[in-house]
Give the backbone structure.
Amino acid sequence: MKACVERWNPLDDSDPSDESLVAMAAEGNREALDSLLRRNEARVLRVLRLMGVPASDREDVAQDVFLRVFQHLSGFRAGNSFGGWLYRITVNASNDYRGRAARRRKDESGWVAGLEEAASGAPGQTRELESRGEWRRIERALESLSPRERAVFVLSELEELDTRQVARALQITSITVRRHLVRARKHLQRILAEGK
Amino acid sequence: MNTQMTGHGSPDLDSAISAWKNGSVQAEALSEVARIRILARAANPGRHAPPLRALFFPLRQLVLAGALPLVLLTGLIGYVTLQSLVATPGVEHPPISASKTSDGEVIFKIANGKRVHRVYMSTSPDRFEQAPGFTTRDGAFRDRLDGGPDLVFYRID
């Protein structure tokens, strides 16, 4: 059930918040739609990459994310965080993708190939990074986590959300967030230490 | 702000996280074709509508079909009415009525002279302190039934 207790008033045009853009976009404002897209595409693509979507499919999954968002704009609850909502949809989309991929029996080399493709600057449009070796270490290690632990770790440690924001985004309790994070950190530390 | 659990016992992990943050500066972007496609479909959902697919659970399709909101609404009205009947010393429980409109909204009216109230919504009756609050207008507030969690609890102060 979506709320509309206080009608959301657009902020000053010079720098509207995501939430005010949502209200305008829900009323059909195409500029607001475009602004929401441009403002959040990097975040969505980054989280999809961190959640294991290879570069070859990342743009398609990102399109799916934004279409889901735009189709449900009118139901967005005023007063809630658009970013948290977007993270939830993105994580769900990445889990859906990985579920479909597992059902198609995609082997792990596909993920690695996607990573190589991303590092080389191919269709995923990821540019080369200065410390490629270290960057790849953490992203490889993420593959060993469960989907929920991975989502908690990505949102907490890499996207730098606080516990409450992560809990809201994933619709779990703060205690569960902390538990998953502790477990994920222990697991990743072990993997990285073994990989030295 | 994030409270990082860094420090003892995770030197390799902390180093890898730090390297990732320092190294992954360049942001990915959608291609222009992808942007145009998204905006076109967003602007014309009827023409390009994808197959109906539940976002979270298949149960949501029942919600959209309209069957479940009536059940939930009935339960919700009962809950709200019960709460209003249980008097707590020093706490006001104004009578509340709810009605569903034809365009997918439910309107709650608080019968105590249009006083201003703060409304909190949560998916759990134990977690209102974490929920954002809203202010009522003219003794009423509205909620939509076409998305989000299937069950929502309200607290009215």
Remarks:
- The first helix of chain A runs from residue 18 to 26.
- Chain A touches chain B through 70 residues (CB under 8 Å).
- Strands of chain A lie at 2-3.
- Residues 1-13, 116-131 of chain A have pLDDT under 50 and may be disordered.
